[in-house]
Amino acid sequence: MPVRSQPVVDPQRPAVSALPALATPMPERTKSRLLELVKRHGPLTAQDLAQRLDVSVPAARRHLSDLREQELIVCRTERPGGRGRPQHVFTLTDRGEAAFPKTYSTLCVDVLRHIEALFGEGAVLRVLDARNVEVAGRLERELPRSMPLGERVRALAARLDEQGFDTEVEQDGDVWYLVERNCPNLTVARQYPQLCGSELSLYTQVLDVPVHRDRRIACGQGICRYRIG
Fold it and tell me: Is residue 71 left, alpha or beta, with left meaning phi > 0 and alpha meaning psi from -120 to 50?
């Protein structure tokens, strides 16, 4: 009686389920792998990514489309080696880069600590105030005082979103609230509360109305909330 050969099982290869829904990588995991590939290997085409992810090109394009909507990647046209037929390649945006671990906060804390040690406690606040002057000048050009207050608040929220603050705008009658659900500077803010004070001064100057903060992430609360007007 002939012996039926058994399939060779590769221990490094995960078993394939009989259920079609489980035979492909989970979408969010695939997106994470896609971002990692672009980060590690530089600009890649959809075909390159599909091959590396072991998915179809249309599937890769769907993930790329989702990541573009989230502003994590951007598409540009370039010629391989400066010659040949132009091709579309994908690279990380600043927001996409921010999804990977950074040591900026540790560096910032170290710099502020040395400034304080060398020039005294008030030096940190003077540095932050100088930065505020520069940032406020730019924002005041983008948010002129001729704009209605609500539009200025929303425009400011949009700028803060770009910096990773995950901002929302709420309104209660004539009062506006700016809500930040994330603090990208949390490590620094916990050690140097001057940063939070500088932020409050900046918003007051740019919006040109009284601004009061009633919640603060650095104090252990879930959000930073600013009452405007």
Answer: left
Residues 109 and 205 reside in one and the same domain: yes
Rounded to whole angstroms, the Cα distance separating 117 from 140 reads 33
Q: Is residue 15 part of a domain?
A: no
Q: Are residues 160 and 199 in the same domain?
A: yes
Same domain, 109 and 164: yes
Task: Please give the single-letter amino acid code of residue 12.
Answer: Q
**Quick one: DSSP state of residue 80?**
G
Beta bridge partners of 181: none
pLDDT values of the chain reduced to their tens digit, one per residue, 229 residues: 444 444 444 444 444 333 333 333 446 788 888 998 988 887 899 999 999 999 999 999 999 999 999 989 999 888 765 567 888 999 888 788 777 766 667 888 899 999 999 999 889 989 998 989 999 999 999 999 999 999 999 999 999 988 889 899 999 998 999 999 889 888 889 999 999 999 999 999 999 999 999 999 998 888 999 999 8
**CATH code, 66:** 1.10.10.10
The range of the structural domain enclosing residue 44 comes to 25-98
Give the separation between CA 96 and CA 72, rounded to whole angstroms: 4
Q: Residue 86 is which amino acid? A: P
**What's the number of domains the chain is made of?**
2
Non-local CB neighbours of 149 within 8 Å, separated by 6+ positions? 176, 207, 209, 228, 229
Task: State how far the Cα of 75 lies from the Cα of 83, in Å rounded to an integer.
Answer: 19
